[in-house]
Write a structure and sequence with these properties.
The structure is a single chain. By secondary structure, the chain is α/β, with parallel strands linked by helices. The protein has one domain. A four-stranded mixed beta sheet has the order 1-2-3-4. The chain is globular, with a radius of gyration of 16 Å. The protein starts with 14 loop residues before the first helix and ends in a 5-residue tail after the last strand. The relative contact order is 0.16.
């Protein structure tokens, strides 16, 4: 697998375990490569959402000059913009993740955040209850492209089934 992101900052502290699983499965490795490329493109396109240390707005043209560590931090921060809620319900064996209206713009970065969260739970909650449901609450217009990442999640975590539910929000256009 050709990695574009080293995750040396530990911004997503459990993500290396996902890469270990990818070493055992070329289909997962191929999807992770695609996810990395898309996440880097999203972080570059959305770099202006995060001011620099000296409070200046960064431009996409400045992205390539950033250190790998800064790019990783930007991916994590961009991914956090795609999440608006997380709840685990032990009684119903359900993990509920609410995606924000920005999800079309930050989808791959957000999937990295979700994978990191699921990796933290893997081997813990599914020991007590072997089958769980991941409920993704998606804003209207925010579903495009999600199914490929849902398949990746189910390959990585076979103890999960996924159910998409709509929210009353409307997704922000990706353009």
């Amino acid at each position: 697998m050709k990695r574009r992101i080293a995750w040396g900052t530990c911004a997503l502290d459990e993500i290396e375990l996902v890469y270990e699983k990818a070493e055992e499965n070329t289909a997962i490795a191929d999807q992770l490569e695609q996810l990395e490329l898309q996440a880097l493109n999203e972080a570059k396109a959305n770099i202006g959402m995060f001011p620099s240390d000296d409070h200046k707005i960064l431009l996409p043209e400045q992205f390539d000059a950033l250190s790998d560590n800064d790019k990783e931090i930007l991916i994590m921060l961009t991914g956090n913009k795609g999440l608006s809620g997380l709840q685990t319900d032990m009684e119903t064996a359900t993990i509920k993740i609410r995606l924000s209206s920005l999800i079309p713009r930050v989808q791959a970065c957000t999937i990295f955040s979700i994978l990191n969260t699921l990796e933290k739970l893997d081997g813990a909650i599914n020991v007590l209850i072997p089958k769980w449901t991941l409920e993704l609450y998606v804003p209207l217009g925010g579903r495009k492209g999600l199914s490929q990442w849902e398949l990746l999640i189910m390959q990585l975590y076979p103890w999960l089934s996924i159910r998409e539910l709509s929210t009353n929000e409307t997704a922000v256009s990706s353009s």
